[in-house]
């Protein structure tokens, strides 16, 4: 696991060139590259982008390249037409102002477009000197992301352990929840039958359906049917099974995928859905407390996942 935040810097002195590369990154939903180059080195941008895009999957990555040339080959050309045009114009001005002074060479050379200077630059040569510097800077940058990612992974695993412990707690109360549902349904039907005059149990006793309903076998079956329906509606066995499966997949994805951020965030959403359902179904205080712990752990995990690829 790698963090989306990192920093790397390296510089190298060559006989004819000084090169420095700075790389820094921040959290971002997608990969965004910002490459800052001197204008004359813009041809190198595509190579730098190709290098980084194969090594980063998410984050806002800023790369700054600085070049300082110690010796530069260049050629100088004379724009003869421009020089002659300037000379004629200056002579006309001399006539207008009745000046006998001839336009000097120094004046004409300083005018725009008379001299053309072109530096000789070799983009391939630049890249040969830049690439090793870029590699070292990126290695530092990547190491920083690895260190931060390791710490983040450890924190996430600690919260996953809390989820697993809470899952065990909730699972241990699942039978009690089903029994509570059955007893509530039983009590309601007995109250209904008592109010209808069909059943008058002894004080302090809980009648058995078959014995107390007598000939009301249809109601007995109705009670059983309603119990089965409500158990299907209010029990949490399916949620617990899906919860456990999501946690297993979460751990597996964390170990096998070097950039698991998006997949793990999706799994957190699915786990949160199961937690919400469990919380809405159970009146048991201990389960409600476990739900609070699980939601807090999930929120911490999702906060950390915003920092990783």
Ordered list of secondary-structure elements with their pairings:
Elements: E1 6-13, E2 17-26, E3 31-36, H1 45-53, E4 59-69, E5 73-78, H2 80-96, H3 105-109, E6 115-120, H4 123-195, H5 209-213, H6 217-234, H7 237-256, H8 261-281, H9 285-305
Helix pairs in contact: 4-6, 4-7, 4-9, 7-8, 8-9
The beta-strand count equals 6
User: Cα-atom Rg, whole angstroms?
Assistant: 39 Å
Task: Tell me what portion of residues adopts beta-strand conformation.
Answer: 15-25%
Through-space gap between termini: 7 Å
Q: Tally the structural domains.
A: 3
Poorly predicted tracts of residues: 203-216
Structural class: alpha+beta
The helicity comes to 55-70%
- Quick check: average pLDDT? 84
Basic shape:
elongated
List the quaternary state of the chains. Answer: single chain
Main beta sheet: 4 strands, mixed
How many helices in DSSP terms?
9
